[in-house]
User: What shape does this take?
Amino acid sequence: MKTLAKKLAQSLPPIRQWKGPKTAELLRSPGKFGLGQVPTSVKPDATTNLVCGFCSTGCGLNVHLKDGKAVSLTPSTNYPVNLGMACPKGWEALTPLESDDRATTPMLRKQRGGELEAVSWEEAMETFCGRFKEIQAEHGEESVAFISTGQIVAEEMAFLGALSKFGMGIKHGDGNTRQCMATSVVSYKQSFGFDAPPYTYQDFEESDVIILVGSNLCIAHPIMWQRIERNKHNPEIVVIDPRRTETAVAGTQHYPILPKSDLSFFYGLAKVLIDQGWVDRGFIAEHCNGFAEFETHVASFTPEFVQQQSGISPEQMLKLAETIHKGERVSFWWTMGVNQSHEGVRTAQAIINLALMTANIGRPGTGANSITGQCNAMGSRLFSNTTNLLGGHDFANEAHREKVGAITGVGAENITKELGWTYDQIVDGIHAGKIKGLWVLATNGSHSWIQQDKYSEAMEKLDFLVVQDMYSSTETAQQADLVLPAAGWAEKDGVFINSERRVGLVKKVAEAPGQALSDFNIFRLIAHYWGVSERFAKWSSPEAVFKMLTELSAGQACDMTGISSYQMVDEFGGIQWPCRAEDVPALSRDNQRRLFEDGKFYHPDQKAKFVFGDATPVLEDTDEEFPYVLLTGRGSSAQWHTQSRTIKSEVLRKLHPAEIYVEIHPDDAKGLGIRPNSKIKIVSRRSTVEVTASVTPSVYPGQLFMPMHYAKANKLTIASFDPYSRQPSYKFCAVNITVD
Ligand code: SF4
Assistant: This one.
């Protein structure tokens, strides 16, 4: 390998793009060459707004600098998303940057079973390219894959997707966004003709009926909940969720459906609306296809059948249908309770169908609205080059390849014609011996992937695992052969796109520690060492790439050609797509943009489509041996996913239990002699974990809830996926309880 790396290094062209210096020199004075610690463009004693780097709400945070150092932050009062509010994570957003376990230098495990050792960027790059090329030479180009993230800026996502697929011959790459958003992507594409969440946050304030499905908004998206609290229409707040969550308690109606009965429930609700004559047949005829078939499909979902499936009585169903009928502006919102399901796509589409049949779309306070998870999941949906070709284009379409090849400078002939494997297929491909090299960026699958052991074991089977991350301490980084130290949020420039399609700016206001580089600059180094830097000559800076991305969006539903610069994004307080040049004057008057106000959807005939299917059984139902359903989800507003960042904050740590716990209903606890805070074991067919019992009526008898933030939770879950979106179904597996 060493010889190959040496050979490769010798064959490399001079580093022309940086005017001659060797990598070591580059890294000694990186700012001089456009790499690494480039001085921020923000004035050293200024206050500047940037978009938060945790969740998809996309709040604006004012970061205050003193002597060039970010010293504190406050929520922006004039940013149209959060209007002066922030959740605990936002307030503590700077803290994780200072953590001791930041990756500060490349680290290489020189032999199996050995320790990770600090190496130079030169050695890291030679090894990275040498090992991956060697694996490709031996097992084929497809034997190397990547798994990325919804946490990096869109320019970096696009660069990774282009460099890997059009430069390095990597076919299979996916993101951790598969875990949260894939279902909504497929649902919207099939129903509307494009992946297009139609709403603006102002809709939370305009609705008179707000229906939240599988969404604990109060803690998962607290600022969106605050927007509901600003609603002056005294809205009905309907919560459809198996758990009596914080949001269900705060709402006005709660429908605690049985876990994974949602598809039958929504088809039953559609039937009640049809039977009562509470549908808008004029709107349907003018703007939709497939309603007659849908009407026939739901005919068998009688109230009695639905009660049997969901536990919700015919009277309750009628009450809900009547609430929708009486509402003038009804909005439907869903998130992970729907998306993370074995039949999430059809369930999301059942919700979309309700909005279409009642004409609750395209008007203020309405919509079939998927709430996204990660800060840049929406950027990843358009620009990661995984589920579609850059800019919502189609890999299989020659004209699209020509367009992307010309704008990006990579050449259409280098663009692949097919989608690669999804996340779960990549993991299976490793187990099958087809994937031998993996590049993991800013995600921690050995903690977060469903049926975690399967992922973790896959990492051990690889010939070469590279982890590019802010931290060298994550479970996945600890398994790596090579760790590439990356800058984090606020240490680099770029854009995120939030849930309401708002492009928001992230700025460099802090220096990355040690030799850590922005992901963007790591990609530039890799392009050079791989020998394809000429092909990526146009990818010279984040803003240059941003301009390419807007150009790529031309003529697409997500057209943002009216956004001319970072400065424009900054001045407007973020800009929602679409934004063409002709949209800019209206934008100046009202920075809120909603889709489908003209009743035109993105299918060729401009109509939306009723999409539906049969309900299907869960992969693993309860039985005598495993009689409880385990639900997983967010535990508190102070925790973010695998906690690699939030755990670094002393403030946030005080806002949630330190150890993993399980919520159990008082009746179940009493029957088993379980007292609050006692240690119990939860057993699934995959594993057994010891947890603390939290006895609470927030879960119903026969159900348990475990927060996903603790690594043990996914030892229990089962690898079950939606067949259309390949999104994991985290919300249902069968378990038992043992008490010593
Ligand atoms: Fe950041 Fe989301 Fe909290 Fe807003 S709600 S401050 S975007 S984590």
Notes: Residues 107-176+379-490+508-534 form a domain with the Rossmann fold fold (CATH 3.40.50.740).
